[in-house]
Design brief:
single chain, alpha+beta, Jelly Rolls, seven-stranded antiparallel sheet, four-stranded antiparallel sheet, 4 helices, 19% helix, catalytic activity, acting on DNA, oxidoreductase activity, acting on paired donors, with incorporation or reduction of molecular oxygen, AlkB-like
Length: 204
């Protein structure tokens, strides 16, 4: 059975899905629509969003999305040639963190937020396997706003898994997944609204 076939059979809500070198949990309705709508509005207006840039061939290229880094004050995060110093936790982020920690079975100390303003905003293939995240990091992804396709691709076999991340959903990636699977949010030509994604992490 291919990974795509396994996903298409709609596993039970919150079930751990074991895949080749890793596992994940997907809960499409972790938050109800009213709660998710409220969080989306608050996150868009209250978060200290920034247009960061990456270094590419000696030039600074803007990320095709807005980002923000929040967490414990001694937990900076480095990726794509930049280092982000954390903003202090907001009450809303602390509440979301406390909601997801029992399911993830992890106490998170930081969160990276990405704001996709339309279908042209995206994030390319990458892994969350930076040294400061530890050996087999647990990454909890909370999603508000427009539905976007989340793609996983095995580094060695090129196996693919596509998951439609719904408004109010929770995706937990764990085990060896970050060492063997890349993931991305591709661009789409569909006319869609904004999406805010929060990926909670533990910085060692």
């Amino acid at each position: 059975m291919s990974q795509l076939d396994m996903f298409s059979e709609s596993p039970k809500r919150g079930e751990t899905i074991k895949i080749n070198h890793g596992e994940y949990i997907y809960i499409p309705d972790f938050y109800d629509k009213v709660t998710a709508d409220s969080y989306l509005k608050r996150l868009i207006t209250d978060i200290n969003w920034k247009q960061e840039s990456m270094n590419m061939y000696g030039k600074k290229v803007p990320f095709p999305r807005l980002t923000a880094w929040y967490g414990d004050q001694d937990k900076p995060y480095s990726f794509s040639g930049i280092t982000l110093d954390p903003n202090p936790w907001s009450p809303g982020l602390v509440k979301i963190k406390s909601d997801i920690e029992p399911k993830a079975k992890v106490k998170f100390n930081s969160v990276l937020l990405n704001r996709y303003r339309n279908g042209s905003d995206s994030i390319s293939w990458h892994t969350d396997a930076e040294k400061e995240l530890g050996k087999n990091p647990v990454i909890a992804s909370v999603n508000f706003g427009a539905e976007r396709k989340f793609q996983l691709k095995h580094i060695e076999t090129n196996e693919r898994i596509d998951i439609l991340l719904k408004h109010g959903s929770l995706l937990i990636m764990q085990g060896e997944l970050q060492h063997y699977w890349k993931h991305q949010i591709p661009k789409t030509k569909k006319e869609i609204g904004e999406r805010v994604n929060l990926t909670f992490r533990v910085i060692k």
